[in-house]
Amino acid sequence: xxxxxxxxxxxxxxxxxxxxxxxxxxxxxxxxxxxxxxxxxxxxxxxxxxxxxxxxxxxxxxxxxxxxxxxxxxxxxxxxxxxxxxxxxxxxxxxxxxxxxxxxxxxxxxxxxxxxxxxxxxxxxxxxxxxxxxxxxxxxxxxxxxxxxxxxxxxxxxxxxxxxxxxxxxxxxxxxxxxxxxxxxxxxxxxxxxxxxxxxxxxxxxxxxxxxxxxxxxxxxxxxxxxxxxxxxxxxxxxxxxxxxxxxxxxxxxxxxxxxxxxxxxxxxxxxxxxxxxxxxxxxxxxxxxxxxxxxxxxxxxxxxxxxxxxxxxxxxxxxxxxxxxxxxxxxxxxxxxxxxxxxx
Length: 345
Known about the structure:
Low-confidence stretches: 1-6, 290-295, 308-345
Shape: globular
Strand content: under 5%
Structural class: mainly alpha
């Protein structure tokens, strides 16, 4: 008993998975460097060159817009709202695709479900992995813009770590949402009603965007009016990016308020963003895969996705046969037995 207390409690399964995959990724990185020094140099050169070129272009563009008297600040603010709104949608779609592939079309997931590890732990690890894989490019793209924005506004040093903290919080919300949507898609993808409904929803969204963003008629007839009113008329269709309930609005407002020196307002929006991240992150970590009927959704989605490979193909008996991930046909039935056993009431 005394010897066991000295060693302490063993690490959790989630910590072991994170440590093992981190070490594996680090050794792969070292292996690439040892395998080809030229390849490492070329990749590093392109990454550094992109960051430098993107920073220079953003700096020149923002400096040019900021020179417009009375309009530069308004244009940059609207650009910031639009940028984070579109990036939120792109991050959500990216997490949806990557989470679906990572959960239900991955050999590692099939192998992990055969081990004495709970489905909740596997779901948590795949959520973290999918978030990192889907979000690193976002950080790579947004870093030069925010650095150029800070240089254009001549902001102090504390603006940059505060922005890094906000962006780190921001990427968690589309990750959790995309992860949940991937389980819903995998669960109901084999149903014809869901397929038709998803197609109709996509067409409706595309039509709505086309109507909403159409050019304003009669704009050339008002060229003699005030420039501010004309610009507001041109950007009236983009005001949806300033909807107060959007996570992108919280991030943009916090960045802008901090840049203006309104620290209390910036901290307020940062607290709103943090509270939503903690709430939805807690739901994803504790409810999904844990108890009640909601947690069984990933398990049912995994079982349904194994037979949903036919997609729209219906009719013959051959097309209705369940399809599995290529190369894991011998292992694939075992994870579902383990998952259903784990999630059984």
